[in-house]
Design a protein that fits this description.
The protein has 17 helices and 27 strands.
C-alpha cells in the first residue's frame, strides 16, 4: 500500500488532546517556507539566495507530484480516510491550495522585488527583449536560428489537430494567431526545450562581473513570427502543468519487479494534472481552453507573474562570482585516515581495525573515507567478498565502478539495489543492469518493502581468519550529494556488528527471517518497538528521579505512536529535544502536553540529513545513528537500520552537535506552542548569531589540527 493510500493509525488516548498533531502536509509547506526565508534573507550571499529560490520551486513541484496527488487520488477514488489531524482530505486540500498559493506569490515577489534587482546591482542582469539594442538582438537571433529554432515543434489545435499531450513540469507557450484565409483566431502550443539552458547569456565576454541573461521563453516569444509564416501572432502566454508522478508498484511473487517498474514509469508520464501555473497576463479564452482540456478545477490554477518555474535560477550558481556565494568549506580527512604525506594512500583496514571511526560528511571527506574504503576493498587481494546496499547514487559513481572492478577481479560481490527509490528509478535500473553484466550479484530486496538502509560489509582474510569490516551510514553512497548532504557514518570491525550485518544481508538476499540483533535496530520488525521501549524507559527514569533525556534528529517526524510516547515522556518530566529538517507533526511547549519538548530546525548551505536517536538512560547513554526517519513508511514498510555508538569520543561528539543546534547563541528556527516557526538570527543584543554549519566546519578543522 502506498504512503498516500494507507490508513493512519491514531492512538486513542484519553489523556492526550485530540488536536495534538500538526497536519503533515501543512507542516511540509511550513518547511518550504523556511527555505523561502533563506532566499529572503539579505545576510545570505546573493547567488545562494537565487539557489534557495530554485530549491523552493523544485521542492514544491515534488510536493504536488506526490503528496497533493495522493490526496486527490484518495478523494477521487473514495479512499477519503481521516488525516492525522482528524480532518477530511477535502478540507486539508483546500488549505493546502490557499497556503501554497500564498507561498508561490511570496516566492515570485521575492525574486521580482528583491533578488532580481539586487543581482542587477551586482552586475548580473536578467533582461527583457525590449531592453536590448539592435546589436544584442542580432546576436540572440543568430543563436536562436542556429540552436533553438531547429528543435521547436509548434502544435496547432483545431478539428484536425486535437489538443496535444503536455508533459509535466515543462514550460509552454500558448499562442493565438489570426489566420487570414479563414479570418479565425487559432490556438497553438509550443514547448520550451528543456535541453537548452533556461537563461541564455546575451554577452559572450569571459568575465562574469557584468553579464546579461534573457529567459529562454522570452527569446522564443519574440521570434514567433518565423514559426507561423502567413499568420499574425496576436499574443502568447506562458503556462506549466504539474502531473501526478508518484509511482505505485503492486508487487507480487509472479511478476518481475524491473518489468513492473518500467511499466509504471511509462504510466507516470501520463499521470493526471495536479496543478496548472499560468502567467498573470493570460487571456480568459486561453485559460478556459486549458482548464477544459486538462479537466481541472479552478482551485488547481495558480496565477503568477512571469517568469514561471524559478528552478532555472539554479543555473546562475555556476557563475564565477565567489563574492556572491558562501565562503568555501573544504572537507577535511578524518584524523584516523590521514597519512604523513598527501601522496600516500592510507591503509583503511588498518585504521578501522585500531578503533571504530565515526565520520561526519561533508565536514569530513567522503572521498577519503567511504569511497577510499570501497576502492581499497575492490583491489585488496585479501578481500574475499563485498556486500553493499545502494539506494541512490550517481551513474558515473566511483562506488559502482569499484564494485564492478571487484567482481571482475573474482571477488564475491553482492549489490542490493533499490530500484524503487523515488525519481531515481530509471537511473537505478540502468546501472543495476551494468552491475549484473559485470558479474555482480544484484538483488532487489524483499517484496513489499523498500530497502533504505545504508550498509557496506567487506570480508577480509587476515592471518587465516575472516574479519568483517562494516560501514553503516545515515546517507546514500553518492559522491556528488555527499558534498552537500550532512550525514554520519560508522566504520567498525566489531564482531557483534559483523554478525548483525551478515544476518541482515542474508535476510535481504535470501529467505532468512531474523529478529535477533545485538547492536542494530532493524525495521520493520524491531525498530519501532525498540524506540518505544527506550522512550518509555526514559519516562520511568524520570518518574524515579534518575537522569533522563531524549534527543532526536530526523528529516521528518509524523509517526503518531512515537509522538504520543514522547508526549507521555514529557509529562513524566523527561527533557525532549527534537531536531527536524522537514515535516514535524509534534507540538512543542504546549502546557499540560509538551512543556518539556523543544523543537528546532536548521537549514543552510548543507541539507541536514543524518538521523540520530539519543537516550540518557540514567547515565548509561544509548545512542544510535542510521537511515530511518520517524514516519510510517520508515518504521513499517522499509528495511531500515540504526546502529549503536559505543566509543565515548563518539558520544561526546554527538552531544556537541546537539549542543550547537539547541544553543540560544546559534541561529535556528524554533517551534512555538501554536505550531508556527520562529527564526532567530540575532542575539538579544542585536548581534548576528553564528551559523551552525559554519561552527561544525570550524570544529572539525580545529580537531584535525589538534591531532
Amino acid at each position: 500500500m502506498s504512503e498516500e493510500t494507507r490508513e493512519i493509525t491514531i492512538v486513542d488516548d484519553g489523556a492526550l488532546p485530540a488536536d495534538r498533531y500538526i497536519d503533515r502536509e501543512l507542516s511540509w509547506l511550513a518547511f518550504n517556507q523556511r527555505v523561502l526565508e533563506l532566499a529572503e534573507d539579505e545576510t545570505v550571499p546573493l547567488l545562494e539566495r537565487a539557489k534557495f529560490l530554485s530549491i523552493f520551486a523544485t521542492n514544491l513541484d515534488e510536493f504536488f507530484m506526490v503528496r497533493v496527488a495522493g490526496l486527490k487520488r484518495r478523494i477521487v477514488t473514495g479512499l477519503a480516510v481521516p488525516t492525522n489531524v482528524g480532518r477530511a482530505p477535502t478540507e486539508v486540500l483546500a488549505e493546502i491550495n490557499r497556503t501554497a498559493s500564498e507561498l508561490q506569490l511570496r516566492h515570485a515577489r521575492c525574486f521580482a522585488e528583491k533578488v532580481k534587482p539586487q543581482l542587477a546591482d551586482a552586475g548580473i542582469h536578467i533582461v527583457e527583449w525590449e531592453a536590448l539594442d539592435d546589436a544584442d538582438r542580432e546576436i540572440l537571433t543568430n543563436y536562436y536560428e542556429q540552436r533553438i529554432y531547429p528543435v521547436l515543434m509548434p502544435l496547432a489545435v483545431d478539428p484536425a489537430h486535437p489538443f496535444p499531450y503536455i508533459s509535466g513540469r515543462a514550460l509552454n507557450l500558448s499562442i493565438r494567431v489570426h489566420n487570414p484565409n479563414t479570418d479565425k483566431i487559432e490556438f497553438a502550443r509550443l514547448k520550451v526545450p528543456q535541453m537548452i539552458p533556461r537563461y541564455v547569456r546575451v554577452d559572450r565576454r569571459e568575465s562574469d562581473d557584468n553579464v546579461r541573461f534573457i529567459a529562454l521563453e522570452e527569446l522564443i516569444a519574440n521570434q514567433l513570427d518565423g514559426l507561423f509564416p502567413g499568420m499574425k501572432v496576436i499574443d502568447d502566454h506562458v503556462f506549466r502543468v504539474t502531473r501526478n508522478e508518484d509511482v505505485e508498484i503492486e508487487e507480487d511473487e509472479t511478476e518481475n519487479l524491473i518489468q513492473a517498474l518500467e511499466k509504471e514509469l511509462l504510466r507516470r508520464r501520463f499521470g493526471p494534472p495536479i496543478r496548472l501555473e499560468i502567467s498573470d497576463d493570460m487571456d480568459e479564452a486561453t485559460l478556459d481552453l486549458l482548464i477544459r482540456e486538462f479537466d481541472i478545477d479552478e482551485e488547481q490554477v495558480y496565477t503568477l507573474p512571469a517568469p514561471l518555474d524559478l528552478s532555472g535560477l539554479f543555473g546562475l550558481a555556476s557563475l564565477r562570482r565567489p563574492d556572491l556565494k558562501y565562503q568555501p568549506h573544504i572537507p577535511v580527512t578524518h584524523p584516523a585516515f590521514r597519512t604523513s604525506s598527501p601522496s600516500d594512500k592510507p591503509d583503511m583496514f588498518a585504521a578501522i581495525a585500531r578503533r571504530e571511526v565515526l565520520v561526519h560528511h561533508p565536514y569530513e571527506s567522503f572521498a577519503t573515507s567511504v569511497q577510499a574504503f570501497i576502492e581499497q576493498a575492490a583491489t585488496d587481494p585479501d578481500v574475499l567478498a563485498i556486500k553493499q546496499t545502494l539506494y541512490r547514487t550517481s551513474g558515473d559513481s566511483p562506488i559502482v565502478a569499484s564494485l564492478i572492478k571487484a567482481a571482475e577481479a573474482g571477488k564475491q560481490v553482492l549489490a542490493l539495489v533499490e530500484v524503487k527509490a523515488r525519481f531515481d528509478e530509471e537511473a537505478n535500473i540502468t546501472w543495476a543492469r551494468k552491475l549484473e553484466q559485470a558479474g555482480v550479484h544484484v538483488v532487489y530486496g524483499i517484496v513489499g518493502l523498500k530497502t533504505h538502509c545504508k550498509l557496506v560489509q567487506v570480508i577480509r582474510e587476515e592471518s587465516g581468519k575472516l574479519t568483517h569490516y562494516c560501514h553503516i551510514g545515515t546517507g546514500n553512497y553518492n559522491p556528488k550529494t555527499s558534498r552537500i548532504y550532512e550525514d554520519f557514518g560508522l566504520f567498525t570491525t566489531s564482531s557483534e556488528i559483523g554478525r548483525d550485518v551478515t544476518k541482515l544481508f542474508n535476510v535481504l538476499s535470501g529467505y532468512a527471517i531474523e529478529t535477533d540483533y545485538d547492536r542494530l535496530l532493524v525495521a520493520p520488525l524491531q525498530l519501532r518497538s525498540g524506540l518505544l521501549e527506550r522512550i518509555e524507559r526514559e519516562a520511568e527514569h524520570a518518574r524515579a528521579g534518575r537522569p533522563s533525556g531524549i534527543r532526536l534528529k530526523a528529516n521528518s517526524m509524523v509517526d503518531e505512536a512515537i509522538i504520543d510516547a514522547l508526549y507521555r515522556a514529557s509529562q513524566a518530566g523527561v527533557p525532549v529535544d527534537v531536531w527536524v529538517r522537514g515535516i514535524c507533526s509534534i507540538r512543542a511547549g504546549v502546557p499540560g502536553l509538551s512543556e518539556n519538548i523543544r523543537v528546532r530546525s536548521v537549514l543552510g548551505r548543507y541539507l541536514e540529513h543524518s538521523r540520530i536517536y539519543s537516550f540518557e538512560n540514567d547515565g548509561e547513554r544509548d545512542v544510535f545513528i542510521g537511515s530511518a526517519d520517524l514516519m510510517h513508511r520508515n518504521l513499517d514498510r522499509r528495511i531500515e537500520v540504526l546502529v549503536s555508538l559505543a566509543e565515548r569520543e563518539h558520544l561526546a561528539r554527538v552531544d556537541r552537535f546537539f549542543g550547537f543546534a539547541f544553543s540560544d547563541d546559534v541561529s535556528s528556527w524554533r517551534m512555538l506552542p501554536d505550531g508556527s516557526w520562529q527564526r532567530r538570527v540575532v542575539s538579544e543584543e542585536g548581534e548576528p548569531l553564528p551559523d551552525l554549519q559554519d561552527l561544525v566546519m570550524t570544529d572539525r578543522t580545529q580537531a584535525r589540527r589538534a591531532r
